Amino acid sequence: xxxxxxxxxxxxxxxxxxxxxxxxxxxxxxxxxxxxxxxxxxxxxxxxxxxxxxxxxxxxxxxxxxxxxxxxxxxxxxxxxxxxxxxxxxxxxxxxxxxxxxxxxxxx
Length: 108
Known about the structure:
Layout: E1 7-13, H1 17-26, H2 37-53, H3 55-64, E2 68-74, E3 78-84, H4 98-101
Antiparallel strand pairs: 1-3, 2-3
Helix pairs in contact: 1-2
């Protein structure tokens, strides 16, 4: 029997007021003046911001399996975050990354 690992993919925009407010709360103890806004958001995610933002979703998943932060990819103003039980390549057809599905979108 093949084990299908649990994966969670999150696209977190940096330019929203909600993200800015949460980032400030997470970074109050650490000086991040030298970092760009997207780097500050990435650092806040590594320090537990995801558990704050998605508390209900992550708590429900952790009951059954433990997810680890495996990959954070910086795009223009979005962080693409991948959580999984272990490192797994996310298939393009199952991804929410717009770089995968927008080029093949058929326009009327």
